[in-house]
Amino acid sequence: MAIKTVGVLGCGLMGSGIAQVTAGAGFRTVVLEVNEGVLTKGLARVEKFLTDGVAKGKVPEVVKTTTLANLSGTTKYADLKECDLIIEAIVENADVKKAAYAEVEAVVGPHCLIASNTSSLCITELAAATSRPDKVGGLHFFNPVPLMKLVEVIKALSTSADTHQALYDFAVAIGREPVTAPDRGGFIVNRLLIPYLLDAIRCYEGGLGTVEDIDKAMKLGCGHPMGPFTLLDFIGLDTTYFIANILFDEFREARFAPPPLLKRMVLAGHLGKKAGRGFYEYRS
Ligand code: CAA
Ligand code: NAD
Fold this sequence. Notes:
The protein is an alpha/beta fold. It has helices at residues 13-24, 36-55, 61-70, 94-105, 123-128, 161-173, 189-205, 211-222, 228-235, 237-251, 260-267, and strands spanning 5-9, 28-32, 71-74, 85-88, 113-116, 136-140, 150-155, 177-182.
């Protein structure tokens, strides 16, 4: 079955980037949001990324034009009815994702595949909530999606070999570098990355150094493109908090437990770059 039309659920940090790369690769892409305000903001993020790319000489003007022509936004599930693949990139909460899949299944055809971009949730659990567990898998992208090549392709216990292959081939078709990852909390990258980021917060709380010095040390001492606090702000502290709780629930290991400061920053609304304030302050 050829994938022609892609639906993306969520036009936040990840959904906007995913929609950009699928539309940019020539797939008709419909991105769905909860309301017009968030949708407009998400689509503006795509346009800005492309405009910046043109200005930097990285994106040909024609690619910007065709990407935007292939992309449309909606707040109505009915507009996803032609989709051959749904990529879900909404809040990291299993119940919210399952409810969205029920809405999707009410409109799409029986052939339509569903892939979650979850960072840490059990894909087998998400698949089991649908009427098509063999057609559900994981496509885990990295932030910022247009610049990060990796996609983890996750096979749930119920995912058929055909679905897994179709998702893997799709990742290649949109110019990504896929790896197959197991359906275990955090897959490959977040299993290793999240404990490191949580440890950085614990070290800061323990007085190891300032946020700026710890970031500088890891950048210049290890050649990381971003220090841990810049990266935490970039991922989103709410998303990191949800992931930590899910991984702690899965493995019951202290290294996955969210540090008290992370919880308090989320409660205070200091969610990182997207909120204008996290470990650092940002001006829009
Ligand atoms: N369009 C096209 N290309 C662009 C662009 C745009 N709008 N903006 C920048 N670029 C290009 C630049 O021209 C540059 O290209 P060259 O390398 O060929 O020169 C490249 O992208 C890097 O851009 P910059 O030089 O402007 O910025 P940078 O060097 O600071 O890199 C970054 C930016 C790629 C984001 C880098 O800081 C980085 O890799 N950070 C770490 C990101 C990371 O770890 N992400 C994973 C988060 S975890 C996750 O996603 C999983 C999860 O579930 C939580
Ligand atoms: P975000 O907060 O930036 O965006 C989530 C968007 O989903 C919001 O705009 C929200 O309005 C929308 N949304 C919520 N419920 C919805 C629904 N029922 N239907 C449609 N839209 C809905 O979050 P994000 O960082 O883009 O994360 C989204 C998913 O991607 C999460 O599962 C997260 O774990 C995963 N992820 C995040 C990163 C990252 O670095 N932030 C990286 C990889 C994967």
